[in-house]
What we know:
With 177 residues, the protein is mainly β. The chain has a single domain, classed as AOC barrel-like (Beta Barrel), CATH 2.40.350. The chain contains two helices and eight strands. β4 and β5 (117-130) form a beta hairpin. The radius of gyration is 17 Å and the shape is elongated. Residues 1-40 have low confidence and may be disordered.
Amino acid sequence: MYRLIVSALFAALLFVAFCFFPTLYTPSRKATSLAEQPAKDNSMTARATGPFDVKLAPLDPANKTDDNVLGRMSIDKQFHGDLEATSKGEMLTAGTAVKGSAGYVAIERVSGTLQGRTGTFILQHNATMDRGAPHLNIIVVPDSGTGQLTGLTGAMNIIIADKKHSYDFTYSLPDSK
Length: 177
């Protein structure tokens, strides 16, 4: 039980480290890479920004290990601003014996309205910390958009200022014509 608690606390600390230290939340690839990709026919590239709230809760890991280096958390978010939505998801974490080295992956399903267009889509996170050097990437899972968000592609950055979370989402969406 003690190891499970330690594993859950480690996972929460890793997530908090990425969330509360803005320099740690730098994606490993540029979110603006969408502008460098060829645009699909009848698509528009846009940017959405706003604040969000996040709640994490430890879950029992599906695969327990003797050393409890693996962890699992639930994610519950509320987005505001250009993206008025909620999301639910899960995060898997891995710690190591080396201080400052760890990783996490997460999937969250976002449901709501993106600049007036309603639907759902899935965000995929992958993050590593290599002896204190962080790398984070958050992208829209290809072909995960539904409703008026069908065809959505994009990448999201997280900004932390005055201990408050906000997002900067660069995306492409087929024209509604």
